[in-house]
Amino acid sequence: MARICIIRQGNFPLDPRVRREADALISAGHTVDIICLRKPGLPLFERDGRLSVRRLPLAKRRTSTARYIFEYLTFLSAAMVLSSVLHLRHRYDLIQVNSIPDFLVFAALGPRVLGCPVLLDLHECMPEFFGTKFQTGLRHPVVRVIAWLEQISIRFASYAITCTDQMRDVFVARGTPPEKIEVILNGSDEEVFDATRFPPRSREPGRFVLVCHGTVEERYGLDTIIRAVALLKDEIPGLRLEIIGEGSFLEELRQLARDLDVEREVSFSGTFLPMEELLRAIASADAGVVAMKRDAFRDITLCNKMFDFIAMRKPALVSRTRSVEEYFDDTCFQMFRSDDEHDLARAIRELHADPARGERLVQRAVQVSEAYRWPSQQERYRAIVEGLIRPSTGNVSRMIGWRKAENGPQPRPLPQFWERGDHSGTCPPPLGLGKKLGVGTEVGDDHASASWKAHPAGSQSRSPNLSGKDSPQTRYLNGSSARRSPNETTEHAASGLHWE
What we know:
Layout: E1 3-11, H1 16-27, E2 31-37, E3 45-48, E4 51-56, H2 65-90, E5 94-98, H3 109-113, E6 118-122, H4 126-133, H5 141-156, E7 159-162, H6 165-173, E8 181-183, E9 208-213, H7 222-232, E10 239-244, H8 250-259, E11 266-268, H9 275-284, E12 287-290, H10 304-311, E13 316-319, H11 322-327, E14 334-336, H12 341-353, H13 355-368, H14 374-389, H15 396-399, E15 418-420, E16 436-438, E17 441-442, H16 445-448, E18 452-454, H17 472-476
Parallel strand pairs: 1-2, 1-5, 2-4, 5-6, 6-7, 7-8, 9-10, 9-12, 10-11, 12-13, 13-14
Antiparallel strand pairs: 3-4, 15-18, 16-17
């Protein structure tokens, strides 16, 4: 079988997507080497059967933009040297590079020059990520450079995959050939998040526990949840919020809990828990909460925590974003407006008052997410890998069910989510509008500089996940057999990776 190297500027095995991909490759008989960062306490090198992990001892502080760039370039250089040396020793059949950053793909330069195929796994849309994180706006010159780096990185790779259909839409709108990129959805690792080993606890009178887990950052909306708990603490007996994880926003949240006098109602683990403890905490809670703040970046990503709660058979309160609403609807989650503690309080109140509703939400979420589960996604992933390491088997896209247009692939038009109109604090459309976005549609610079607005949450004219042939569920049933061809123009629908 093949020998494959995965490069990721993150921690392994804490990164769930990389962990699942490595497991899928090993279970298919391949040998996998992983190059990643070293988390304190973990060895520089370890081997377990056909899996080898090499951790680079580089610090991860990221206190400024300059520090981000320094760390990216340092890891890129070290990984480039190490992958080249290992390739000369082992002759890899495939190098896979997982962003961020996108240009980390050039760490595979040596093997690529020597003929090794390269698969780029795009965890995030870097321009949107950078523009929202540093509040620069998407038309900032630095963001435009990042968009240019994104596209040359995809062109350098042999093939690319990403986490949601919305992200793929953005990459294609910026110039990526549609036949060169596919979607492998994030899903919960059901061998870990196993409700049969950790069955959900039944509701008890005088007790209502909410749980959040993962990285503690401002963008995950944990402050919204604490404010909602403060609104309800005298209304719902036994209301508790458990925040499990660590991150840069932890101290601000602790201070907020003190300021709102909810220290008794809100608890913090202060660190990532061992998996067994995390699973027990989720199983004993009454509901999970995913309170992502809405912006240009989060509108095109999905948060893994949703799938964890589904796998653990827990009702979830989930903030409305474009991507969430295109994969799920109000019959799957208790939805609320992003960054709105009053609407979240309303959602919590309704879920608490109607235990049967929680059961219905779980049943429907399990039904809808069947097509998104990792067992079917990993088959698509393996097919892509197989097409790259064995090119004689045929075109990669054709192996996973891509239907080519008769006249060749065409860029798809900008998703209908965006409308021209007055700018009211919402996010502009993707970059790179000064080119053709659809067949026979030329968009000039005046169009690119126009003001834009987005449909408010829930205002789409259709419910994609209930509409039959055009729904994400249909597209992902039975692998990729329902994938649309590049010239179809209907709008179609993670990484939020919860440990990174």
